[in-house]
Amino acid sequence: MTPFEWEEPRTLKDAVALLDPEDSSIRPVAGGTALMLMMKTGVFTPSRLVSLAKIEPHYSQIRVDASGALKIGAMASLSALEQSAGVAKHFPVITRTLLTLSNVRVRNVARVGGALAHGDPHMDLPPLLASLGAIAHVIGRNGTRDVAVQDLYLGYYETVLAKDELIAEVTVPPLKGARVAYIKCTSRSADDWPALGLAIRWEVAGKAIRSPCVIVSAATEKVTRLFETEKVLEGASTDEKTARRAGDAAVEEVEFLSDAHGSAAYKKELLRVHLARALRQGGAL
Asked: What is the DSSP secondary-structure string of 143-154?
C-alpha cells in the first residue's frame, strides 16, 4: 500500500481545515467501511486521510427533540441508530431498515454521515432518509449550508458536497401521522446490496393519498425522486387500481441501470411489483 499521511483532528472545524478543495487524494474517514475497500482494491490511493474519530462527541449523538424531529450526529454509528429507543418509537421504519443493512460488524463501524456522503446508490439509508424529508447540515471552509438528502446526489458516487465539506448532522422532520415504507429487494441474501431500494412516504385523507414522496435507488445511478409517479398517486384512492397505475408510471419515469445485481429489464419489473407492495406495507391498500 502506498504510504499516506494520517491526521486526527480534535474538532470538526480543524478537520475541514485539513481538507483541500483542489486535491481529491485527501479524504475524510469516519467508519471507513467503504473507503478501506476502495484502497485495498486500488480504486483509491490517498495522499492524506483525515480521521473524524476524535472530533467533538456531540457529533455522535442521536436524539428526538421537543417537536418530534430526529437529530442524528454524522458520527453516530449505524448500530447506535438501530438501537436507539427514540428512533424505534418515532421512526420505526428506520429501525426495520437497519436490520438488513449489511451485517452487524459493518453497522458497528459505519457512520451515518459516511453512508450519506459516499454516494453509492446501493446504500439503504439515502433513499429512506430522502423520503422522510431529511436535511443534511453541511460545514465547509466557506461556512455552513443545509442540503435536502434527496438533493445530495448528482450521479454514481457523485454528490453536491465540495471536497472540503463534511456532513455534521442530519435532521429528520416529525412524521405527524404520515405513513412510510421502505422495500429492499436483493437477488441474494437479505443483507446484500439491493437490486432495488424503494422508499415511499404519504399522508391519507379519508381514502385519498396526499403529499406522496416516492424515492428509488439501486436500480438507478443515484437516489431519484419520482415526481411523475407522485402525480399519479396524489389525490388517488387507496386501492389496487391506483397501485397498478403508479407502477406503470414509475417504470416509464426511471432510467434503469444494469449491474451485477440485476439487468435493467429485471429491475423494471421489480419496481412495478414492489411499488404496490410498499403501499400495502404502509397500509395504503
From this structure: EEEEEEGGGSEE
